[in-house]
Amino acid sequence: MPQQKADYADDTEIDETLDQPADDATVEETVANLEERGFDVIVVDDADEALDAVRSQIPAGASVMNGHSTTLEEIGFDDLLSEGDHEWESLPDQIWSIDDDAERQTARRESQTADYFLGGINAIAQTGELVAADLSGSRVGAYPFAAGNVAIVTGTNKIVPTLDDALDRLESVAYPLENERAQEAYGVESAVAKQLIYRRETEEGRTTVVLVREQLGY
């Protein structure tokens, strides 16, 4: 059975003041600042609309890879990609069909250059910066340059006032939840090992932020 956020979130202490859905004025200002920094932004009301928005971004025939994201799971994208109700090339299906560990790791690295790479983010500063971190870097490695296009799906609960607050949210909300998930799923602790501050997108049209007016992910 797939892991659910409820399986581990209830056992985790987080700073709940940094995990509240943003009001309309905050969303509006955040969108303006993201767009000023070169990100395309789509604002939707719920998970179903988010999935529709993501589907509309990816053309038939494109190679698609996703980094682990609770938000993508919650909107149904992981199920969509694995079940095959699309006309894309699903790189995760190819990767996890490889038996040899070394070959699979090579394929994972090569998947960073997918036509479309999808994932989440751990915090958004109202001033327009995005913050994310991984243990391995398998998600944040694609965001800055490697992937042809990037779609980041996030709830408005990840919007905080400043970049300092975004870094605080990474440590006090996202990390505790991911650490608990990793222990439940893999029996090992996680770590904020490889961190990205995405201050600006310099390639027009490359990175789209789908901002959902719901409390999603972490």
Low-confidence stretches: none
Percent of residues in beta strands: 15-25%
Number of helices: 9
The secondary structure category is alpha/beta
Number of strand elements: 10
Cα end-to-end separation: 21 Å
Q: Roughly what is the average pLDDT, rounded to an integer?
A: 95
Radius of gyration over C-alpha positions, nearest whole angstrom: 16 Å
Shape: globular
Largest sheet strand order? 1-10-7-4-2-3
Question: Helix content range of the residues, please?
Answer: 25-40%
Order of helices and strands: HHEHEHHEHHEEEHEEHEE
Mind summarizing the main beta sheet?
A: 6 strands, parallel
Strands, helices and their partners?
Elements: H1 6-9, H2 24-36, E1 40-44, H3 47-57, E2 63-66, H4 70-75, H5 77-83, E3 89-90, H6 91-96, H7 101-110, E4 116-119, E5 123-125, E6 130-134, H8 142-146, E7 149-155, E8 159-160, H9 163-186, E9 194-198, E10 207-212
Parallel strand pairs: 1-10, 2-3, 2-4, 4-7, 5-8, 7-10
Antiparallel strand pairs: 5-6, 6-9
